[in-house]
Design a protein that fits this description.
The protein has 499 residues and is α+β, with helices and mostly antiparallel strands. The chain has 12 helices and 27 strands. The chain folds into 3 domains: 279 residues, FAD/NAD(P)-binding domain (3-Layer(bba) Sandwich), CATH 3.50.50; 77 residues, Alpha-Beta Plaits; 109 residues, Glutaredoxin (3-Layer(aba) Sandwich). Strands 1, 2, 8, 9, 10, 11, 19 and 20 form an 8-stranded mixed beta sheet that branches. Strands 14-15-16-13-17 form a 5-stranded antiparallel beta sheet, with helices on one face.
Length: 499
């Protein structure tokens, strides 16, 4: 084997996945077609949940926090994000090239091997391994691993070569975008003209423009459009001449909406845009892909390390495919609102009024920010992400975020019951998976107040909650491996919450 896992694609999703796999103890090789890191800005928006994930791994330690915008949009209609229930409400601006550099340094620092100039040409799966054939400047090579994960974008070679089914809706509309220097045009926030939609924003001397002509059908392309095509469309829609600017990046994208029918096929898996193709509205594809990587990393590492309970890896598809489908529906709705002509004006007018209602605003803001993802319904926080909370242990003050830095599960005892805590510590000594216990208290008003025990997965989602009489053995077995029967007795001396 050349690695336990080969990740195809060194974009943000592939690099985050590589880091998560390394945290879980897997040997990882990342192969990337491009010979050098990309420099284009491309996706530049991180949502609240993505910022929580990056902070959860300490990736912003010692770095300046990215610029924040308190408002976003839903289909081009302004959406206040400042009330999101997160430490990171709003949108955070970080160029994709900078995000990739941050994640690559992190993953490489933990021992990830990143091979550039490796173009995947073949994928062959057997009962015990996957072999990929790659073309390099030095000729063909073959690499072998226990698992291969395609994180290689919406034109994924892994998806195509492994014959993943990829149903969905074809593109019906096209939108141009480019980055320009040397132009002076007004900022336009989803401005609708008689013949189309125009967007312009200038930051650090670079102006990002996007333009769509109502009713324009997409053109089958094998390469990016010429800047002259973008400038002509901009002139027809806005009447402005931008031909004097210098284009540093030109792109076209459409509203195709597709999702693979399953995220796992034997020893091959997909994540990010390789698993779902959608219009890049508000940076949604990047942020959904980061959640894919976070969900998959610890589970696949558990399989490689040999402690994964039966069915653990299958929960990746069971959890992320419905979440991806929900994101596609939301993006499709926004695409209709954005790219529709006069026929959608009435719907936009109604939504503009509704979105001012707090209940509507908060629901849409949670969906946009990735804060609504809940993998199962249950008591209290089951299936939801663990809220940020300050914790007081016997030796220090800490936070829920800091407890998850090591990428391990956490059995958090908040009961204040000595017998309970001793029993939980004894219990996890027999747990095969990577889980630790932590005893702490929380102040009044904490989002965790009133909960005695919380089992948290390495990805930050709550696996189980219980009171002092609850036995966490079944939840531990489900997520972290079999525990010897009868190891835990719920006998207790009295919960702090009882008083």
């Amino acid at each position: 084997m050349d690695a336990d896992v080969i990740v195809v694609g060194a974009g943000p999703v592939g690099l985050l996945l590589a880091g998560e796999l390394r945290l879980g103890g897997a040997e990882v090789t990342v192969v990337e077609r491009l010979t050098t890191p990309m420099t284009e800005s491309r996706a530049s928006t991180l949502h609240a949940r993505s910022m929580e994930i990056l902070e959860q791994r300490g990736l912003f330690d010692g770095l300046e926090t990215p610029p924040n915008l308190p408002a976003g949009h839903f289909g081009g209609i302004r959406l206040d994000l400042s009330q999101q229930p997160s430490r990171f409400p709003g949108q955070w601006k970080l160029a994709q090239a900078d995000l990739e550099r941050l994640l690559a340094d992190w993953a490489r620092g933990m021992g990830t091997r990143i091979l550039r100039g490796y173009d995947v040409r073949t994928v062959t799966s057997s009962e015990d391994a996957v072999e990929i054939g790659v073309h390099t400047a030095r000729g063909p090579k073959r690499l072998r691993a226990a698992h291969v994960v395609g994180c290689d974008g919406d034109q994924s070679s892994v998806r195509r070569l492994a014959s993943f089914d990829f149903p969905g809706l074809p593109a019906t509309r096209e939108l141009f975008r480019c980055d320009l220097t040397g132009v002076d045009i007004p900022d336009r926030r989803f401005e609708r003209f008689e013949d189309g939609l125009a967007i312009a924003a200038t930051r650090d001397g670079v102006t990002r423009v996007m333009v769509h002509e109502f009713g324009r059908w997409p053109v089958r392309r094998t390469s990016a459009p010429e800047f002259t095509e973008v400038a002509s469309a901009w002139k027809r829609v806005t009447g402005e001449d931008i031909t004097g600017g210098a284009a540093t990046w030109v792109d076209a994208f459409d509203n195709a909406s597709r999702q693979v029918s399953r995220y796992q096929q034997g020893r091959m898996l997909l994540a990010g845009d390789a698993a779902h193709r959608q219009m890049p509205v508000g940076g949604m594809p990047l942020n959904v892909g980061l959640q894919d990587a976070m969900n998959l990393g610890w589970k696949l590492a558990a399989v490689v390390q040999g402690w994964a309970p039966v069915g653990l890896l299958g929960t990746y598809d069971a959890e992320r495919r419905p979440a991806g489908r929900q994101a596609l529906h939301m993006i499709d709705a926004q695409a209709h609102l954005l790219l529709g002509g006069p026929e959608v004006d009435a719907v936009r007018a109604v939504l503009t009024r509704l979105i001012e209602l707090p209940a509507v605003r908060d629901e849409l803001a949670a969906m946009v920010g990735g804060l609504d993802v809940r993998y199962e319904q249950g008591d209290r926080l089951d299936g939801a992400r663990l809220p940020y909370a300050v914790l007081e242990t016997a030796s220090r003050s800490t936070t829920t975020t800091e407890l998850l830095r090591a990428g391990r599960g956490v059995l958090l005892d908040l009961s204040g019951d000595q017998t309970r805590g001793d029993g939980l510590e004894q219990l996890i000594q027999d747990v095969p998976g990577a889980v630790k216990t932590e005893r702490a208290t929380v102040p009044d008003g904490s989002p965790l107040a009133g909960i005695d025990t919380i089992l948290v997965r390495p990805d930050g989602h709550v696996a189980w909650t219980g009171d002092c009489d609850s036995d966490p053995t079944a939840a531990l077995c489900r997520w972290f491996g079999a525990v010897k029967e009868g190891r835990y007795s719920p006998a207790r001396s009295g919960s702090a919450h009882d008083t």
